[in-house]
Design a protein that fits this description.
Blueprint (H helix, E strand, L loop, with lengths): L4 E8 L3 H11 L5 E13 L2 E15 L3 H11 L8 E4 L5 H10 L7
Antiparallel strand pairs: 1-3, 1-4, 2-3
Length: 109
C-alpha cells in the first residue's frame, strides 16, 4: 500500500475544521480537504449527544497517514476525535497522481 492514496474522514466543531484543514494542507500532509456541514448523533459518556459538526474529507498519501493523524489529534479540540482512513481502490489517475505529488514535499516518517 506504500504510496497509495487514502481518504481520511474527520469531524470537528464548526470553525475548528477549517483551522485543522489549513494546517494539514500547509504542512503538506494533505493535498486537499473538503469541508461539509453534518449533523451527528452519538453516545458520549453514557448520554446521547446531538451536534452540528463539519466533516473533513482529507486526501493524502498512505505514507503520510501516521503523521496526518498525529497532527489532527494535536490540533483537535475533542478528547477522542473521529479519524477514519479509507483506501482509494480506483479513481481518476491524473487526480490520484496530483494528490501524491502534492504531499511529496513532506518527509516520510
Amino acid at each position: 500500500m506504500e504510496g497509495d492514496v487514502v481518504v481520511v474522514l474527520c469531524t470537528a466543531p464548526p470553525g475548528d475544521a477549517e483551522r485543522i484543514a489549513d494546517l494539514v494542507v500547509r504542512k503538506r500532509l494533505a493535498a486537499c480537504v473538503n469541508i461539509m456541514g453534518v449533523g451527528s448523533i452519538y453516545r458520549w459518556e453514557g448520554k446521547i449527544q446531538r451536534e452540528r459538526e463539519e466533516l473533513m474529507i482529507i486526501k493524502t498519501g498512505h505514507e503520510h497517514l501516521e503523521d496526518l493523524m498525529e497532527t489532527i489529534k494535536g490540533a483537535h479540540p475533542f478528547e477522542v476525535p473521529e479519524i477514519i482512513a479509507l483506501p482509494v481502490v480506483a479513481g481518476n489517475t491524473d487526480y490520484l497522481d496530483w494528490v501524491k505529488e502534492s504531499v511529496q514535499g513532506h518527509p516520510s516518517p
